[in-house]
Write a structure and sequence with these properties.
This protein is an all-alpha fold. It folds into three domains: 15-194, Up-down Bundle (Growth Hormone, Chain: A); 207-261; 266-516, MFS general substrate transporter like domains (Growth Hormone, Chain: A). The chain has 22 helices and no strands. The protein has helices spanning 2-11, 15-33, 42-49, 53-81, 83-102, 107-121, 124-135, 139-170, 175-178, 180-194, 208-231, 238-257, 271-301, 306-312, 314-334, 336-359, 363-390, 397-431, 441-449, 451-461, 468-506, 511-514. α4 (53-81) packs antiparallel against α5 (83-102) and α5 (83-102) packs antiparallel against α6. The longest helix has 39 residues, at 468-506. It is globular and about 70 Å long. Residues 1-10 and 512-516 have low confidence and may be disordered.
């Protein structure tokens, strides 16, 4: 008994490991923050650089595209040459690219700098997560550490616009990029002393053709779904998605032939890995889609300003942050599998409440539902992330981390596109036959296509009383929002049932977590 306790205590992390986790988490916060920090800076960038509509789109999207495309490559590269080394090279490149972005004098330069930021950023998520696995050997501590790691991502999305707004109040728009540099410099100084190195000496050389094929798989698919979300469904948007899928088939066939593949397909034969990846992707799918609707609902249906909408959303953001820090307690109490299944049910309950609140156009109902969604979503995502990495062999942890992050990128883009398309269909069906007399053909098309178009047309009319069709448009949007939430509820419950069966065959040892 005494020897068992001693062995367990020897596995516990010390001060060095926890400080190392803080360093990794700050790096993740910056990486996450850069996904949202441009939101408030865009007006200043437009005034200074005068980008075209196409250039503006690429300034916004290129960072996320590059991160998505290079996650698998950078995760596997970390397994081969060293995870700490890849993280440090990425941190240095991130700092340099941040400086290039800050001092860009043309839109083209900013696009290139943002692309380089994305490639460098792709080293951070898989390297930091796999290094967390190396730092924390005790299962309970690892669960808590992944929760803190996840908190950094949640905080990055929350504080990005706030920090950006504060800087823009007093400084040039480039300041939103310059804040990255001291953080990355601190990481470069501290990491060699705090973080262990890990690499697979038998990993073999990186197959460059596989790298090209992985990019040609991920980028067209993400591009197609993002454009579907931005402009509504059009058949032409299926072309890049189809191209990506076809290249993906080629990519998978090549991985089967290689002695040292870029992605070890054997990982997908591990039931806990596959089930956790499926649940993780589905969770992100619905949360991204539902929260996109929520943001539009607050501004377009309820008429809140962007600042008011952001302030009303703070309570749900705080729930996400607190749950990220406390999720380990839920796992310690119920175990990993029960936490996931219970979280899916709570998430489904949240989307069900969201459906009713959206249909009745209730501000407090929607915000309360979003907090309920957070209570279920956060433990599910963090626990499945831990299982995805934890069930993979140690030498493939970087690759498993990258697969997890890529799945989340796909899930988010897919959720926004698919749920957005369903909502658009419901909206357009609601607007059929609505009297739009007095509007030009262009105005009528805008009103009948999206609520955003309807609100903009109503503003240009300058009437003291809102036109009757605007109320119908808002009702149509709310109905589409409710339908998407109902779809989410049913799917999440079905997913819980499927996951329960798959996890039953996985035989996960939860004793080390539950006992702590």
């Amino acid at each position: 008994m005494h020897e068992n306790l001693k062995a367990r205590s020897e596995q516990l992390a010390g001060r060095r490991e926890w400080i190392g986790l803080c360093v990794l988490s700050i790096a993740c916060l910056i990486y996450s923050m850069d996904l949202s920090v441009l939101f408030l800076a865009m007006p200043a960038i437009m005034a200074d650089l005068d980008p075209s509509a196409s250039e503006l789109l690429w300034i916004n999207d290129i960072y996320g595209f590059m991160v998505s495309g290079f996650l698998v490559t950078m995760g596997t590269l970390g397994d081969r040459i060293g995870r700490r080394r890849v993280l440090l090279v990425g941190a240095f490149a991130f700092g340099v690219a941040s400086a290039l972005a800050a001092f860009s004098s043309t839109a083209q330069q900013l696009i290139i700098a943002r692309a380089l930021l994305g490639i460098a950023g792709a080293t951070i998520a898989p390297s930091t997560l796999s290094l967390v696995v190396n730092l924390f050997h005790n299962e309970a501590e690892r669960t808590r550490a992944i929760g803190i790691w996840g908190t950094a991502f949640a905080l990055g999305g929350l504080v990005g616009p706030l920090i950006g707004g504060g800087l823009l109040q007093y400084f040039h728009w480039g300041s939103v990029f310059l804040i990255n540099i001291p953080i990355m410099a601190a990481l470069l100084i501290a990491a060699p002393f705090l973080l262990p190195e890990y690499k697979n000496d038998e990993g073999g050389k990186l197959d460059l053709l596989s790298v090209v094929l992985s990019l040609a798989t991920v980028l067209p698919v993400i591009y197609g779904f993002k454009h579907m979300a931005a402009y509504g469904f059009e058949p032409t948007q299926l072309v890049p998605i189809a191209v990506g899928v076809l290249v993906g088939v080629w990519f998978v066939r090549r991985q089967k032939q290689l002695a040292h593949p870029l992605i070890d397909l054997a990982l997908f034969r591990i039931p806990a890995f596959t089930a956790s990846l499926m649940v993780n992707l589905a969770g992100v799918f619905f949360v991204f889609g539902v929260f996109l609707f929520q943001n539009l609902f607050l501004q377009l249906v309820l008429g809140l300003s962007p600042l008011e909408a952001a302030l009303w959303s703070v309570p749900s953001a705080l729930v996400f942050t607190v749950m990220s820090l406390q999720a380990y307690r839920v796992v310690n109490r119920f175990g990993q599998v029960k936490t996931i299944l219970l979280g899916l049910v709570v998430n489904a309950l949240g989307t069900a409440v969201m459906a009713m609140a959206a249909y009745s156009e209730s501000l407090l109902g929607v915000l309360g539902a979003s907090m309920l969604v957070g209570l279920g979503f956060v433990p599910v995502i963090l626990t499945t992330t831990g299982l995805i990495v934890g069930t993979a062999p140690p030498e493939r942890a970087g690759s498993a981390s990258a697969i997890s992050e890529t799945g989340a990128e796909f899930g988010g883009a897919l959720g926004v596109a698919v749920l957005g398309s369903i909502g658009t269909i419901v909206y357009r069906m609601t607007m059929e036959g609505v009297d739009l007399a007095g509007l030009s053909s262009a105005q009528a098309l805008a009103v009948s296509t999206t609520l955003t178009g309807a609100v903009e047309v109503a503003k240009t009319m300058g009437n003291a009383v809102a036109p009757a069709w605007l109320e119908t448009a808002r009702t149509g949007f709310s109905l589409g929002f409710a339908v998407c939430c109902a779809v989410a509820t049913i799917t999440l419950l079905l997913l819980a049932a499927i996951a329960r069966k798959v996890y039953a065959t996985a035989h996960i040892d939860e004793a080390s977590v539950a006992a702590h």
